[in-house]
């Protein structure tokens, strides 16, 4: 099969680059000189091609070259995978022969070459072989591609040595088979999102740092290669505290035929920053004008809690809950107002298709149905008594809308939530909101990453947790002077119940309870008593779950059961979800002979 001229040129370039990397020409010169010196007679001045090939084969040079140029070919008829792309990562020993890359695309090879100044772990000793220790994992997201490094032990200088091959491609119409050049890549403003996660010895994960890497400086560097030091900052209250430093190397692949000047790159980045700043400035000007108009409606509006730029713990929880409810297809808003004694607070509201209003408390999970009180009703008329803790409401908002409450009273109990009535709710321009809040509207708001499939093996994990719980129960009963006899058949019968509990939790539909109860009745002989205790967790730490279960008097009564012919059972079912999230259901049970 013949190649087009441009593909043949690219292939030659790749081969030349690999030969240069291996210094093949230098090794050939050495062998040539050695062969002439050792094998030719003094009167023989010429070395044939065959003699040189034999010498190269004898010293393994040709075999080395062929191994390094081991290109993987695909079946022509095989369909290419659709986006999101499968990430390709390298470690320090890997070479290009391990990848199956598209020669028509441009790639950015990002290498993490160690870390330093992680001072929180300055005093941590180096872990012994086989010792369980806390680890760092670096996660990357770039244009619908996701990557994860190998876990490395937490240390002052963590031993990160990973590489990630990021496809750089503009997905406009007509660009499907065109390799991106320097100018095209300069217009791709998506940063590389780097997230550092710490996993402790119990398997609990903690967000350590989040950083957006501007990679386009490599377009103006010599040979398309540049080295960077990235200072990671903490999160939350420690957002201004340095966590540590990563050494990063960026390299374009295939190498750029023509690099840009650093001045051109810097000018483009400066123009983008100016554009973002201008959008934010214009929105701020509009927000101030909107506020002035809002105050002109009624002077008392000045005392209402209308927060266009809200931030805080309850606001963060409410924003997250509102986002989840929006993702489930509900019409959800964050409400900003006050609770008892005028304490500022934020909660979530959903609007039903029938006009019903439901309040959601993000800090507790409680829900309340809102039934407004009509202040024009006669004093003796029966009015609904509000059960929610909210007193006043100043505004509501979500990712597309912001509305200020301009009703005569901002009391929640008398508020009418007809959001389309501009005499009751003053809206902010949706276009103005999109200019600063839509994904990708500014460089500080990159597109959301795709979800990754779970890496947890549900069956293996369920069995592991179950065996750990059996051991913990046996040890606990031994400390109490009690023997432990497990009944596997009874444990087996608990499985359908846990499956139906998870089904009911996710769908609110109850199913299978009658069959489970019938199976238990058949398994428990006459004169015996059965007790069961199901509980749900979102983590896989068996010891932590066992400690929680013991705090329940009913569960403790089962685990510490005394009596005649006591048989114990435990069943664990792990249900996996994207991003390796999981629902863990545990049921402890016992049966014993009743003695009067």
From TrEMBL:
Name of the encoding gene:
CEP76
Q: What is this protein called?
A: Centrosomal protein of 76 kDa
Where does the UniProt annotation place the signal sequence? none
Domain Centrosomal protein of 76 kDa C-terminal, first and last residues per copy: 455-593
Q: Which residues form the CEP76 N-terminal domain?
A: 10-69
* Alphabetically ordered keywords of this record: Cytoplasm, Cytoskeleton
Q: Which GO terms describe its cellular component?
A: centriole
Segments forming domain CEP76 C2: 100-257
What GO terms in the biological process aspect are recorded for it? regulation of centriole replication
Q: What does this protein do?
A: Centrosomal protein involved in regulation of centriole duplication. Required to limit centriole duplication to once per cell cycle by preventing centriole reduplication.
Q: What is the source species?
A: Oryctolagus cuniculus
Q: Which residues form the CEP76/DRC7 peptidase-like domain?
A: 310-428
Compartments annotated for it: namely: Cytoplasm, Cytoskeleton, Microtubule organizing center, Centrosome, Centriole
């Amino acid at each position: 099969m013949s190649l087009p001229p441009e593909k043949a040129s690219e292939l030659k370039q790749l081969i030349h680059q690999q030969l240069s990397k291996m210094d093949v020409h230098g090794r050939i010169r050495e062998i040539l000189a050695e062969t002439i010196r050792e094998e030719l007679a003094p009167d023989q001045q010429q070395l044939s091609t065959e003699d040189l090939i034999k010498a190269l084969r004898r010293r393994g040079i040709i075999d080395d070259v062929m191994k390094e140029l081991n290109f993987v070919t695909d079946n022509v008829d095989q369909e290419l995978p659709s986006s999101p792309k499968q990430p390709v990562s390298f470690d320090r020993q890997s070479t290009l022969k391990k990848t199956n890359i598209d020669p028509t695309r441009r790639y950015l090879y990002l290498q993490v070459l160690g870390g330093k100044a992680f001072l929180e772990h300055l005093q941590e000793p180096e872990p012994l072989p086989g010792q369980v220790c806390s680890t760092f994992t670096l996660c990357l997201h770039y244009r619908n591609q996701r990557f994860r490094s190998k876990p490395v032990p937490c240390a002052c200088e963590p031993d990160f040595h990973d590489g990630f091959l990021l496809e750089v491609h503009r997905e406009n119409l007509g660009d499907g088979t065109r390799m991106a050049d320097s100018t095209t890549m300069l217009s791709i403003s998506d940063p590389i999102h780097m997230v550092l996660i710490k996993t402790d010895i119990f398997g609990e994960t903690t967000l350590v740092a989040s950083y957006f890497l501007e990679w386009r400086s490599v377009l103006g560097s010599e040979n398309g290669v540049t080295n960077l030091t990235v200072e990671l900052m903490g999160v939350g209250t420690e957002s201004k505290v340095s966590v540590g430093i990563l050494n990063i190397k960026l390299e374009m692949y295939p190498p750029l035929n023509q690099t840009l000047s650093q001045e051109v790159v810097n000018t483009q980045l400066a123009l983008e920053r100016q554009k973002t700043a201008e959008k934010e400035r214009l929105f701020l000007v509009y927000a101030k004008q909107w506020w002035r108009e809002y105050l002109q409606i009624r002077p008392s509006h000045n005392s209402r809690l209308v927060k266009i730029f809200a931030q805080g713990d309850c606001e963060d929880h409410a924003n997250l809950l509102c986002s989840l409810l929006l993702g489930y297809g509900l019409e959800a808003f964050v409400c900003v107002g006050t609770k008892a004694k005028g304490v500022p607070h934020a909660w979530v509201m959903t609007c039903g298709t029938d006009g019903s209003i439901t309040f959601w408390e993000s800090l507790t999970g409680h829900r309340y149905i809102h039934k407004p009180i009509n202040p024009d009703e006669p004093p003796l008329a029966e009015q609904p008594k509000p059960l929610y803790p909210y007193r006043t409401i100043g505004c509501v908002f979500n990712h597309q809308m912001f509305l200020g409450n301009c009703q005569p009273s901002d009391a929640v109990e008398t508020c009418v939530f007809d959001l389309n009535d501009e005499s009751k709710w003053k809206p902010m321009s949706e276009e103005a909101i999109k200019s600063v809040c839509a994904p990708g509207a500014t460089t500080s708001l990159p597109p959301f990453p795709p979800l990754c499939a779970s890496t947890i093996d549900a069956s293996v994990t369920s069995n592991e947790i179950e065996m750990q719980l059996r051991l913990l129960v046996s040890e606990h009963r031994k400390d109490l002077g009690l023997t432990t006899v497990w009944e596997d058949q009874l444990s087996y019968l608990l499985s359908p119940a846990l499956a139906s509990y998870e089904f009911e939790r996710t769908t609110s539909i109850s199913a299978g309870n009658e069959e489970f109860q019938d199976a238990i009745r058949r398994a428990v002989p006459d004169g015996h008593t059965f007790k069961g205790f199901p509980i749900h967790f979102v983590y896989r730490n068996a010891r932590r779950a066992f400690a929680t279960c013991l705090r329940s008097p009913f569960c403790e009564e089962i685990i510490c059961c005394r009596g005649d012919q006591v048989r114990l059972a435990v069943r664990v079912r792990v249900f996996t979800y994207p991003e390796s999230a999981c629902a863990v259901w545990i049921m402890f049970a016992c049966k014993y002979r009743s003695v009067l």
